[in-house]
Amino acid sequence: MPAKTFKMTAEGKEELERELDSLKTEGRIDIAEKLKVARSYGDLSENSEYDEAKSEQAKIEARISELEYQLEHAVIIDSADKNAVSMGSKVTVVRLSDKAEAVYEIVGFAQSDPSNGKISDESPVGKALMGAKKGDTVVVEAPIGNLEYKIKKID
What we know:
Helix content: 25-40%
Structural class: alpha/beta
Shape: elongated
Order of helices and strands: EHHEEEEHEE
Number of strands: 7
Strand order of the largest sheet: 5-4-3-7-6
Number of helices: 3
Largest sheet: 5 strands, mixed
Distance between the termini: 37 Å
């Protein structure tokens, strides 16, 4: 079975590389220090600080593995058509039902961060916007019903 690929922008790949570097250096150094301090408290069988530090270490190592896999299988997407929504586009949309305006950056799944306006091209809104042009109205199927967005601007 072929490996899954992770579509991302060049900036997104750099962001993941910086996170990986930080985890491999500062993250590992910090956790090693926490483990050292926790060990100094004595009996490890009843040492909650040690258990917590080991748990944090496991999370860091899991994230490192995840980032390495994503970067190893990254496919950089560079849009040729700047007039249509594509990977890396910043899109200003207006929801027609209430005239609410939003700005979304279309990114790969690995980079998505909806709370900061970065949505995956695989998300319902991202899928609906992909390929659309300024002035187009797109329909997004949502649990609360269909939502219509008009594309105001593409950067």
